[in-house]
Design brief:
By secondary structure, the protein is mainly beta. It has three domains: 5-171, no CATH class; 183-281, no CATH class; 305-560, TolB, C-terminal domain (Neuraminidase, 6 Propeller). The chain is 13% helix and 39% strand. Strands 26, 27, 28, 29 and 30 form a five-stranded antiparallel β-sheet that branches. The chain has a four-stranded mixed β-sheet with strand order 5-4-1-8. A four-stranded antiparallel β-sheet has the order 2-3-6-7. 49% of the residues are buried.
């Protein structure tokens, strides 16, 4: 049985029972406006099976009860199942989320099974990892039924999981970043998860203990010792979360315990329900005097770097720029990347129609010809001082270079073989890289962990297997990091639509931010959505100012904030 088919039926049932509408027995999936979509109340109580209910009514009742089961531990939902199915069904093995605007097509097959169809928004795994669906994805599901000893229809075969609309999902589930440590333990790295609000704190700590998502594991580590467990559920009362760990937690050194506490406090502290964390080990304080204060999104604000008349420059204030380094104009720069260096004198750039990659120090007025190639990517400067670039048609590798040690090398990326790379950007924590590539004209946004050698200038060694995000995007022009779990995307979410700005979560759904300034061709960003800078095809750079845009520089051909 196709697991994706269950979602269709849930949506149909919820709409039918809540709105008293008849579920169609055939035909295509109908699309209705959100305002006409009738949702069951969030606090709706599950109702047991009615005497003499038909197979469709049983399925309807089960799906509604399973939606309400987040409040009653799915006890009523299991009443709709035969005994074997009731004991084997795992409701939170996968939560399939469907769009609010979707209606459901439902029919009964010749076999007696009930089939439903609905559009898919995304799904959440048992580990709390959200996977966004493509914007035209469709889910179908079938339920097999039989009569029990009392002559009542019951479900005998179904897939694990439940289905929720976007609205219900957002009200029943909490978005919780789990925080792991960067390779050098200097910052915290977010791993976004979704857990039922009722048990989010316990799930979050168990998630930390279990470790990072597979795609992130190569770029982070944890200070929680192997074998550590929760001794009991995490209680949250009056804003305080009480976490009690098993004795294995004490096997870590004092410094590692301090890092472990930082991970736990930062993870639970992202919830509005938690103002403080009380950590104990087998009922007693761990005895660590100092608590590590680590950033989850390091570095502050920086001026905007631009290319003006083919040379590097910095925007001092709106309409005023300052040249950075003599001789740059002779190189005909066509892109620029700024470092996180204090005083911001270190830059990287491509030049001469993207055939050369340079690193330069504006203060010392020194230039280093890093690499020559064809159609080089606009560079990204990471927080460890490494410059990232590569040829767009690269054959499965990227270029990294460190001006401070004069090193340049290739980093193999097997999953890019055969693809054309459009854009790259390294996160502020230096643990992750977002790569936009295309294969057969279809763009893909992927995020991968960066494995580094901490004993050698944090040298990038390899990229882990990627996680695909932003599956709802059909075209991508440019990307930029706007937070520990979010990327800004300049692109389109449907064919023929206008180019717009989107926020794409790393392990979460995408949402439209706002329309960019007319003619936007590139973006850069700093710490958040409000820091987004847009470059237009008229060579004018604009910054966000509330819900509008303000011109900050004209006659510029590239823009960049550090990264």
């Amino acid at each position: 049985m196709n697991r994706m088919r269950l979602g269709a039926l849930v949506a149909a049932v919820l709409l039918a029972l809540a709105g008293c509408a008849e579920i169609p027995r055939s035909g295509p999936v109908d699309r209705v406006s959100p305002s006409t979509n009738s949702e069951p109340p969030i606090g709706l109580s599950a109702q047991p099976p009615a005497e003499g209910a038909t197979p469709e009514q049983i399925v309807n009742g089960f799906l509604l009860a399973s939606q309400a089961g987040l409040d009653d531990d799915f006890s009523v939902a299991r009443e709709y199942l035969h005994a074997d199915a009731a004991s084997n069904w795992k409701p939170l093995a996968q939560v399939r989320v469907y769009p609010n605007s979707q209606n459901i097509a439902l029919n009964t097959l010749d076999s007696g099974a009930v089939r439903a169809t609905v559009g898919a928004h995304g799904s959440v795994s048992s580990q709390g990892i959200f996977t966004e669906a493509a914007n035209d994805a469709v889910s179908t599901s079938e339920f097999s039924l039989a009569k029990n000893a009392n002559g009542q229809w019951r479900i005998v075969s179904l897939d694990d999981g439940i289905f929720l609309s976007e609205n219900i999902f957002s009200q029943k589930f909490a978005e919780i970043p789990l925080y792991f440590l960067s390779s050098d333990s200097s910052s915290l790295v977010a791993d976004l998860r979704y857990y039922p609000k009722k048990s989010f704190a316990t799930n979050a700590i168990n998630g930390l203990i279990s470790g990072p998502s597979q795609w992130l594991a190569d770029g982070v580590h944890t200070a929680i010792p192997a074998g550590t467990q929760l001794t009991k559920t995490v209680d949250v009362a009056n804003g305080e979360a009480s976490v009690d760990l098993s004795s294995q937690a004490l096997s870590a050194s004092s410094s590692q315990q301090a890092l472990m506490i930082a991970q736990i406090r930062h993870t639970l502290g992202t919830s509005n329900d938690v103002r403080s964390v009380k950590l104990t080990v087998e009922g007693s304080p761990p005895g660590v005097d100092a608590v590590k204060s680590l950033p989850s999104y390091p570095f502050g604000s920086y001026p905007v770097s631009v290319v003006s008349n083919g040379a590097p420059a910095t925007v001092l204030k709106a309409g005023e720029i300052q040249s950075k380094g003599r001789g740059g104009g002779n190189r005909h720069l066509d892109s620029i990347a700024a470092s996180y260096q204090a005083g911001q004198s270190a830059f990287a750039a491509t030049a001469n129609n993207a055939t050369q990659l340079f690193a330069f120090d504006a203060e010392k007025e020194t230039w280093w010809n890093v690499k020559e190639g064809r159609n080089l990517l606009s560079p990204s400067y990471d927080s460890s001082g490494w410059i990232w670039s590569g040829e767009r048609e690269n054959g499965g590798s990227l270029i990294v270079a460190n001006p401070s040690v004069g090193r340049e090398k290739a980093v193999g990326v097997s999953w890019l073989r055969g693809a054309k790379v459009r854009d790259i950007a390294v996160s502020r924590d230096g643990s992750r890289i977002v790569v936009v590539s295309e294969l057969a004209g279809t763009p893909t946004i992927q995020v991968a962990a960066i494995h580094r050698n901490a004993d050698s200038e944090d040298e990038p060694m390899q990229l882990g297997d990627p996680m695909t995000i932003g599956q709802s995007m059909v075209d991508v022009t440019d990307v930029a990091w706007i937070g520990p779990t979010k990327i800004a995307v300049l692109g389109r979410a449907s064919a023929g639509s206008d180019r717009a700005l989107y926020s794409v979560k790393i392990g979460g759904p995408s949402e439209r931010l706002m329309a960019p300034y007319t003619g936007a061709v590139a973006i850069t960003a700093g710490r958040d959505e409000g820091s987004i800078i847009v470059l237009t095809d008229k060579n004018v750079a604009y910054s966000r100012e509330g819900g509008s845009w303000r011109a900050i520089a004209s006659s510029v051909t590239a823009v960049a904030l550090p990264g």
